[in-house]
Amino acid sequence: MENDKNLNKAAEDAVEGKRKQKMEDNPFLVFFKKPFTFEGTSYESVDLSGLESLSAADMIAVNKILERSGTVNVLPEMSLEYACLISARASGKPVEFFNALPPKEALKIKNRVVNFLYGED
Questions:
Q1: How many CB atoms lie within 10 A of CB 98?
Q2: Nearest one of 22, 44, 48 to 34, comparing CA atoms
Q3: How many domains, in total, are found in the chain?
Q4: Range of 17's domain?
Q5: Which residue has the higher pLDDT, 9 or 42?
Q6: Are 95 and 105 in contact (CB under 8 A)?
Q7: Residues 83 and 109 sit within 8 Å (Cβ to Cβ)
Q8: Fewer CB in 10 Å around end: N or C, the chain?
Q9: Interior angle at CA 22, CA 88 and CA 100, nearest 5
């Protein structure tokens, strides 16, 4: 019994080590605590490296979507809705993917977007 626990712990540590290595290789990779299923496909992570190739025009387009939806925000780029919309553009996934995420996973996405926009170069 104790041996099984040690094996499980070792396997979990190995998986966590691989995740950390992937995150170091790609800081835009956001891992989910548990697999997330969307439209029949299971996801363990989402790659937001497309954030680097977005332009101000993409940001303006997202702002216009927010305005048309009636959302008024002094700092729209700090909102979860903005993060979902910009992440959809960056990843190529539909915005519904990000809207369907569990709360903690959605906040991971938001934090990664905000850190990208306001982080030091």
A1: 23
A2: 44
A3: 1
A4: 2-118
A5: 42
A6: no
A7: yes
A8: C
A9: 30
Distance from C-alpha of 111 to C-alpha of 11, rounded to nearest angstrom: 29
Segment 54-103, tens digit of pLDDT: 999 999 999 999 999 998 889 999 999 999 999 999 999 999 999 999 99
* CA dist., res. 59 & res. 22, Å (int): 28
Q: Measured between alpha carbons, how far is 114 from 79 in angstroms, rounded to an integer?
A: 9
SS3 27: coil
Residue keyed to tokens 């989910």: 32
End-to-end Cα, the chain, rounded Å: 50
Q: What is the mean pLDDT of residues 9-25?
A: 56
**Calpha distance 38→105 (Å, rounded):** 13
**pLDDT of res. 25:** 75
Pairing of strands 41-47, 29-38: antiparallel
